[in-house]
């Protein structure tokens, strides 16, 4: 397995992974018809990520992209010390440490970013594997919107807000 920053040619695979996850799980807030399918738009996001202080990672297994992580720093002056991320991993590659490895890369990268103090995320309460990984890496729950997401089958999930405060890691 290899974790690296995304390149333009990774855009098509990132879009495909997003589509796979949204159509096979209930871990994203978006409905299947709301997932962007525009590879050009994804290429633009990759291209702009460094300029804006963001980070897009991919995980490769046997030179095939099997996961991604997208971190966006908040552009607003009073919130620029924070950023949030989302990630996804192909089903057949979950549970083998890829998510943990991408998060370790993100945390190491974040620790050397000037002025970045907090990594935030939102995770649905039905995503127990992700919750376990986030807790293991030191993320703490900061809030919860109960029954925030209603799925097509009528079931609900809470939207859990979590964060990792980097100043604790820098000491």
UniProtKB/TrEMBL annotation:
Pfam family, one: Acetyltransf_1
Signal sequence region: none
Domain N-acetyltransferase: 1-167
Name the record gives this protein: GNAT family N-acetyltransferase
């Amino acid at each position: 397995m290899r974790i690296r920053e995304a390149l333009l040619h990774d855009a098509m695979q990132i879009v495909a992974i997003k589509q796979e996850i949204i159509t096979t799980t209930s871990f994203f807030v978006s409905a299947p018809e709301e997932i962007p399918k525009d590879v050009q738009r994804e290429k633009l996001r990759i291209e702009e990520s460094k300029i804006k202080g963001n980070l897009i990672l991919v995980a490769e297994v046997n030179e095939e992209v099997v996961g991604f992580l997208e971190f966006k720093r908040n552009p607003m002056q009073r919130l620029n010390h924070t950023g949030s991320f989302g990630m996804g991993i192909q089903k057949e590659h979950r549970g083998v440490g890829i998510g943990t490895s991408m998060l370790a890369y993100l945390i190491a990268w974040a620790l050397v970013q000037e002025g970045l103090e907090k990594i935030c995320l939102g995770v649905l309460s039905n995503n127990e594997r992700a919750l376990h990984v986030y807790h293991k890496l030191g993320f703490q729950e900061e809030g919860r919107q109960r029954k925030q997401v209603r799925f097509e089958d009528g079931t609900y999930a809470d939207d859990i807000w979590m964060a990792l405060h980097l100043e604790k890691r820098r000491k």
